[in-house]
Predict the 3D structure of the following.
Amino acid sequence: MRFLPRLLLAAALATAALLGCRLLLGGRGDDLAPRAEEAPPLTLDTFLHVQQLRKKRLRAFCSHSAKVAMLPESREERARVLSSVRVSTKLDFLYCQAPATGMEGWRWLLEKLEEKGNVTVPMLLPYPRQHALQTQLSEFNQTMIEAMMGSYTKVLFVRDPFQRLISAYMQGMGSSPSFSSFVQDVLDGGQHNASLESKPLVSLCQPCLIQYDYVMMFGFLRQEVGHLLLRAGLPKDIRLPEFTDTQVQWTYKWLSEQLFSELSLKQKKQLSHFYRWDLSAFQFSNSLLSGLLSMPETW
């Protein structure tokens, strides 16, 4: 009966899961035009303004933190720091492969674009162009890594850390019989021992080392990704996968409140401290953890 709570929660997320399957299985794509029932379309000017605000907040965080800001000289240390960063050398994209942020649809899209022999990005690079499949950034030497970080279009996908934690629990990470015990296991293990699904995005994606050009927020991906691709110079007739993050967001809002109520006040405060970097670096205005955030004087 240990997994009964997860089964009940899975039932609550059934609709969202079915929608997500269409994305992960490469279901019927969609063009860049918004659907009639959706919110008003996001204009390019608004998209660019929002990006400026997100990057401004991120720069402010990095200016006051002690996060990695220089590329390590040691190959082993570079591999550790850049373990979640991937590149498409054909399309000149660099992105962080952070679970439960909606980037799965982005990765699928890049794979489809890489299969097209006539799709290239009109960008002058300071080194001979390579056409390798998506791979880890750390597999290249320091000179190539620095060149890619300076010339590629760099994309970061972010999501409320508490929702990412719920996603990890729903996927059956660990053997905890309840969400509260699962959270305690994460807290006891600490950030260094956290799984990729529960590890803070700042630790996974190194946004103080990599100057990301676009910060994409879960819940707004469909229209934002469309503008991103057009800005990157890719063909306008590219069909997007069905990003269902808006529908999933609604479901998680209810689920977050239910699971948050299961935690003790001590766990809530510890969890807020656990994700303090993400809560400071990114704008999660509706996060249940934000109100408990109490940053120390030195991060």
In short: The chain has a mean pLDDT of 82. Residues 44-64 form the longest helix (21 residues). The CA atoms of residues 86 and 136 lie 4 Å apart. Residues 4-27+42-292 form one domain.
